[in-house]
């Protein structure tokens, strides 16, 4: 007879922009710069429609977004490269900061013996630029982007890659996933994570997060350690 896996949360997979990192709308700014370089006129209907799609799909792998927007692979790859370049320039210009309480929450989670992994929908070069700008390269032991795992959100690949690479838990129910978008929630639900928390510091509102499967909706990631503790108390026999 196989015993039940504990519901103690041992692995916490956190999104970056909008969840632990405040980027002040840099995604939209970078998209506008990239789109203009591909001939999308600022202020045009085409620009407005594409920008709205970017807003609606916040959290999804950026190359997937550009494939949907521009159709053929060559244009998508060019748009993605231009976007990452523009975003990196904005990051290097100092237009990024930790969200209030994020570093403290991560520190507390680690002090409690939990493994924390940071994930993103950006390419590795952009993720590294963000980590460097914040001085976060040593904050956690593992960071993942879509290319590290196979597919980006809403697929569960990054969560499952964290599960496999850290060997921190016995089963997926011991994972907590937190993010600010419906795509983060879908990724967490599809991975089988025991706790899937949406935070209200980023792209999507409470309704969108709940509709995508959030088990918890928090004002910010600063509330996550207490939410995990309450979850564990409620699920302990």
From TrEMBL:
<protein>
    <submittedName>
        <fullName>Phosphonatase-like hydrolase</fullName>
    </submittedName>
</protein>
<dbReference type="InterPro" id="IPR036412">
    <property type="entry name" value="HAD-like_sf"/>
</dbReference>
<dbReference type="Pfam" id="PF00702">
    <property type="entry name" value="Hydrolase"/>
</dbReference>
<dbReference type="InterPro" id="IPR050155">
    <property type="entry name" value="HAD-like_hydrolase_sf"/>
</dbReference>
<dbReference type="InterPro" id="IPR023214">
    <property type="entry name" value="HAD_sf"/>
</dbReference>
<dbReference type="InterPro" id="IPR022468">
    <property type="entry name" value="PhnX-like"/>
</dbReference>
């Amino acid at each position: 007879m196989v015993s039940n896996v504990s519901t103690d949360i041992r692995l916490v997979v956190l999104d970056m922009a909008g969840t632990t990192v405040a980027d002040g709308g840099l995604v939209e700014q970078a998209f506008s710069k990239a789109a203009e370089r591909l001939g999308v006129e600022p202020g045009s209907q085409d620009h407005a429609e594409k920008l709205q799609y970017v807003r609606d799909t916040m959290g999804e792998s950026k190359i997937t977004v550009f494939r949907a927007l521009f159709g053929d692979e060559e244009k998508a790859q060019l748009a993605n490269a231009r976007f990452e370049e523009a975003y990196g320039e904005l990051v290097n210009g100092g237009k990024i900061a930790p969200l209030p309480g994020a570093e403290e929450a991560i520190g507390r989670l680690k002090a409690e013996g939990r493994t924390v992994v940071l994930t993103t929908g950006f390419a590795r070069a952009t993720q590294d630029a963000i980590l460097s700008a914040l001085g976060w390269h040593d904050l956690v032991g593992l960071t993942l982007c879509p290319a590290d795992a196979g597919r980006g959100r809403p697929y569960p690949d990054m969560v499952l890659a964290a599960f496999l690479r850290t060997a921190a838990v016995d089963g997926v129910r011991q994972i907590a996933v937190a993010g600010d978008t419906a795509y983060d929630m879908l990724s967490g639900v599809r991975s089988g994570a025991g706790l899937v928390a949406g935070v209200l510091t980023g792209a999507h509102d409470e309704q969108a997060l709940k509709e995508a499967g959030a088990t918890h909706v928090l004002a910010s990631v600063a509330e996550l350690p207490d939410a995990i503790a309450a979850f564990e108390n409620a699920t302990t026999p």
